[in-house]
Every structure is written in C-alpha cells, then in structure tokens.
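Folding follows sequence. Below is one example:
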Amino acid sequence: MSLARIFARTATAALIAVGMAAPAQAAVSAPVADDGSGPETMIIDGGYADDAPWAARMFADGRQACSASVIAPKWVLTAQHCVQGANQVSFRVGSLDQTQGREVFAVPGGVHVHPSADLALVNVGSSVDVEYAPIGAPGAAEVGETVQTYGWGATCTDRPEIECQSQWLKVADVTVTDTSCSDYRGGTAICAYRGDGIPAGGDSGGPMFATAADGDYVQVGVASTSDRSSRTAYTNVTRYSSWIGSLAGV
C-alpha cells in the first residue's frame, strides 16, 4: 500500500477543528452557538490515523492548542492564527499520542507568519528526525478529489471542545470543492465538503494531504476555517511554496 493510503480509519473515531467566522484555538476558548446559549456542537466522525511520522501537536504557552506538520529537520508548518499571541510555541513530535513523543521548542525569533495568508512556519531548536511532509506542487489537489485531513481536535458534542481534545491523531476524508477560495486571512485556500468527518477546534494548523499525479502523497493545505458541520477551508500551501522554501529550504 502506498503512503497515500496507509492511514487506517475506524468508523467511530473523530477528527475535528477551526471556527468559520474566526478560527478557534481550542486551548484558549470554546466557540459559542449562534444564539449565544452555549458551546457550539462539535462533529464526531473520521478515524484514527495509523501512521503519520510528520505529525506535530502544537502547544501555546504550555497548553494544547493546534495541530501541525514537520516539513524539514527544524521547521514545523501550522496556521498563523495558532501562534498569534503566544509567548512560547512548542510541539510534541514522533507519536500519534499527543501525550507522548518528544517536545521541541521554537527558537527565539523563530516564529514566522505569512504577510497575507493563514500560515506560520516555526523554527525549532533541535532537529526532528522523521519522514517530513512534502509540499505539493500547484494542481496537486483538484476539484472533486477526496483528500485527507489530520488533527488532534475536539471529539465531543455536549461540552466545551477544550475538554474533549483527542489524545490520538485523527484523520477524515473531505471532498475538494474549490482550490482558489479564501482562508481566514484572505489568502488562497482549498475549500472542501465533509466526507466521513470535518475539522473543528484543535485541528487548526493541521495538514491536508492529496495524491499527486505521480502518485506521491503530498501536503496541499493547512487548516484555517470550518463550520464544524459540512464545509472547511485549508490554506493552499501549493500557492505559497516559494515563501515556505525561502525559510525552510524545501
């Protein structure tokens, strides 16, 4: 089986994450329902990831916050709104269990945000020796294609999402509806419709993967927004490969 399909799913697992109007970092606050009455309902679906060596769980000031991907020995890719306001950014790497693995920290001045898209690159102080997430070329994701989204986001429907962040990395299929829509900051995004799951609080910054024309499994997006029900937008990293390469050298 190719890398594109080695991520097993179970029928009862949940993937979920970011807010449509304003992306929510689950460690900061729970979104409220439209009528202001209480926590927004979270979606439960998707499955558990079986193998994701590039996966990184982000912590902001020591609290679980977002998801991310390791793209080079000392570089981690996530969303701009995940790092905004954080004094210290760190990641757990090397495990699908967010309570395990090794913790690496951003170096002083190591958090770089894109000027107009919901992207952040974080330079960490020690090398991460894993299989890195390859950034796809433009066109790697196409309208109508089923792609995979990953994260440690919320799994409950009856309480604030910070109380039910998944211990284990989750994965869900979504179907691409547009490759030139907008992310949270007005950058170019890949919009998708719910498949067997949908992102929500805590999945922000997590990767979207697609199968390129040559059969390679490549990262094409970073979680930016979601309505936690049917639609999501991932910053289209294939459009920002020059910026990513200028910092991370990939």
Remarks:
- Confidence is low (pLDDT under 50) at residues 1-22, 24-44.
- The longest strand covers residues 170-182.
